[in-house]
Amino acid sequence: MKSSRVLYMLVGLAMIFAVVGCGASSTPAPAAEVAQEAAAPAQVKKEYKDLTVCYPQLGAESDWRTANSASFKETAQQLGVNLIFSDAQQKQENQISAMRTCIQQGVDVIALPPVVEDGWDAVLTEAKDAGIPVIVVDRSVSADPSLYAAHIGSDMVVEGQRSADEMNRLLPDGGKVIELSGTTGSGAANGRAEGFRKNLNDNIEIIDSQTGNFTTAEGKPVMEAFLKKYAGQIDGAFIHNDNMAIGAVEAIKAAGLKPGDIKIVSVDGTRGGFQLMIDGWVQADIECNPLLGPQVMEMSLLLANGGTVEPKEQLTNETIYLPEQAEALLPSRQY
Ligand code: AHR
Hints:
Elements: H1 3-20, H2 31-39, E1 52-57, H3 63-79, E2 82-87, H4 92-105, E3 109-112, H5 121-129, E4 134-137, E5 150-153, H6 156-170, E6 175-181, H7 187-199, E7 204-211, H8 216-229, E8 236-239, H9 242-254, E9 263-268, H10 271-278, E10 284-287, H11 293-304, E11 313-315, E12 320-321, H12 323-329
Parallel strand pairs: 1-2, 1-3, 3-4, 4-5, 5-11, 6-7, 6-8, 8-9, 9-10
Antiparallel strand pairs: 10-12
Helix pairs in contact: 3-11, 6-7, 8-9, 10-12
The structure holds alpha-L-arabinofuranose.
Alpha-L-arabinofuranose binds next to α3 and β9.
């Protein structure tokens, strides 16, 4: 075949493909649609100053939470992000109604620190249907991961495992421990309880577990009750956060016990926890980092511009603090 004929055939074929399109659908788009597509403006890339992020904070129950709220507010201010912040006072229904208000307002992103794990499916579906990505912050949710864009926070199970490892070290001959647990049904309390039981030596018995709701005010009476009920029997205490440890230590002091009589492992690594280590009351403090504002704002910008967070589960890098480091580290603690 002559080369000029081959060329004509190729041009002809190319024209046919251009009209019917190639690929799965061979139906040509209606003329009106094509015209509309051509007129659509190019997507303008959002910057931090264009972002509105909703943060329905779960409460103000602890120093950890105060630091977490401050991290969001300060980061938003520095970057020029419009932050819609609310305080749900540890009530899930308040968080849900704050989220619904944000959905109605058409915010760019919702960052949700869930007070408890269950019961988020409906509102997460509403956000998804409205095209608003949700970043789950700090504690986890039990909802299907397809309902949210990302989860950033601590591995609460690992925190519980680290706590058990420290308790095993502190009670090498075994003993009886009590657990002062966080908010019932929260990802933090569930995960820490699970991890603690996973790693605890067989010769250590958990004789009781009660919630102190992550607060100093509720932790103290729970410890008072433990001390009455199990007088002289408690060798160790696993306390799910430093604020409850502060309350528990007040109760232990009032009962006439000395630092170290009950070995305490606490969680958070706040200034208050560091002071308890310096004073000899707490023997190990497992870090839980609240300073999540910068990462969440970065993710929000990415999501608002149509990006995805990979992997969806973003875990914070954390450590264990011991009394011998406490004095040197306390001045540089940010919370
Ligand atoms: O979810 C994180 C936990 O919540 C922190 O350990 C505690 O201090 C806070 O209240």
